[in-house]
Amino acid sequence: MKTDRILVTGGTGYIGSHTVVELQQAGYPVVIIDNLSNSNIEVLDGIERITGIRTDFVEADCTDFDALSKLFQQYPDIKGIINFAASKAVGESIEKPTLYYRNNLNTLINLLDLMPQNEVKGIVFSSSCTVYGEPDMNPVTEAAPIKTATSPYGNTKQICEEIIHDFVRSGAPIKSVILRYFNPVGAHPSAEIGELPNGVPQNLVPYLTQTAIGIRKELSVFGDDYDTPDGSCIRDFINVVDLAKAHVIAVERMLQDKSLDKVETFNLGTGIGLSVKELIAAFERATGVKVPHKIVGRRAGDIEKVWAEPKHANEVLGWKASISIDDTMRSAWAWQCRLRDRDVK
Ligand code: UD1
After folding, report:
1. Closest CA to 175 of 73, 252, 242, 246
2. Looking at the annotation, which residues are catalytic?
3. Domain ranges for the chain
4. What residue owns the CA closest to ligand 1's atom 7?
5. To which CATH superfamily is domain 5-184+238-268 assigned?
6. Residue 11 has what DSSP assignment?
């Protein structure tokens, strides 16, 4: 067991829970802080079944400075933070902008302010390819221009990246790794943890698996008149376990003083663009299960095509996405079947 503890905010969420598994399997003691606003405490059971470790858990909101401050006193061995705690629904952010700015910005600001006095060396921040907007060219490198955000959600990611840069520029004795995720999908191969959307899923893969299992009647493909080979949008679908592993490497390089810069930014994607139609075909091929679907109009605000140039992460982090889209689709399906067996809708 390592001695440096990692604080994982939002650790019972989708990407957070997969990252906690990888951290614990790498020997790190972890403490999760989560307000359970978009996750379930039973996720801890799933993590325990995979790793054999019951993760320390504090139920609190990261916008609550005093609660966070108390947590650092309770766990003086915290040396690194991975910050997942954030609101993440694009549509909701347009309806409730202040909620998004309050949650996402205050969480980061509280964490940053508490780091120096608690001798926390580094923070990994969950950003998104959404910062590139509709990119001028694909694949997208980290040097691509940041485009004006089209939603408050996207704007919080841009502002948070800037806050981190400003804080470090001010001389704060911390490091940061900013990870820009493309489209995280799939579940842990054990099917013990996975994505658990609240209500009707907004994202493609949970909607697809819920349709395949019969919870939803039909998957709507939002537009097939885009300037792409089959007319549907193109994304870079990255397996959540591959993604989780990158966080362990990121936090480790800060703890071990291997960072090349005080703030480093990496794209996390496969480098492969797959269309929505190709993804549906991959699911059907990998699982043998048909997905009823129809073409409908475009969804407002959608990006036509975006996929990653992951070379920087490949070379500097020594990380590479390795799980195939077929295995990823099978894992998403196994998770959906597990939810059915547990009667979770
Ligand atoms: C977007 C953001 C991402 C953010 C995520 C959170 C971009 C490029 N990405 O991902 O940063 O973290 O939202 O929600 O802005 N689709 C369908 N039918 C559906 C659902 C989706 O056809 O029922 C299509 C969409 O039109 C899109 C693709 O599937 O082309 C992926 O959609 P989704 O899973 O919602 O993710 P993004 O919009 O790419």
Report:
1. 252
2. 153
3. 5-184+238-268, 204-235+271-307+323-344
4. 130
5. NAD(P)-binding Rossmann-like Domain (3.40.50.720)
6. T
Please work out whether the CB of residue 130 comes within 6 Å of at least one atom of ligand 1.
yes
For residue 127, give the 3-state DSSP assignment: strand
Q: Say whether 299 sits in a helix, a strand or coil.
A: coil
DSSP for residue 132: G
Task: Read off the pTM.
Answer: 0.97
Nearest CA to ligand 1 atom 11: 130
> From CA 82, how far away is CA 76, in angstroms rounded?
16
Neighbours of 151 (CB within 10 A): 18
- Report CA(173)–ligand 1 centroid distance (Å): 37
DSSP 79: E
Question: Residue 55 in contact with residue 32, Cβ under 8 Å?
Answer: yes
- Per-residue pLDDT of 255-314, as tens digits, reads 999 999 999 999 999 999 999 999 999 999 999 999 999 999 999 989 999 999 999 999
- Taking CA atoms, 194 is separated from 94, 197, 317, 328, 329, in Å, by 26, 10, 25, 11, 12
Chain centroid offset of residue 276 CA: 20
Residue 21 in tokens? 């598994």
The closest residue, in CA terms, to atom 22 on ligand 1 is 221
> How many angstroms separate the CA atoms of 195 and 206, rounded?
7
Residue 66 makes CB contacts below 8 A (sequence gap 6+) with: none
CATH dotted code for 204-235+271-307+323-344: 3.90.25.10
Q: Is 314 exposed, middle or buried (0-12, 13-18, 19+ CB in 10 A)?
A: middle
Which two three-digit tokens encode residue 124? Answer: 């990994």
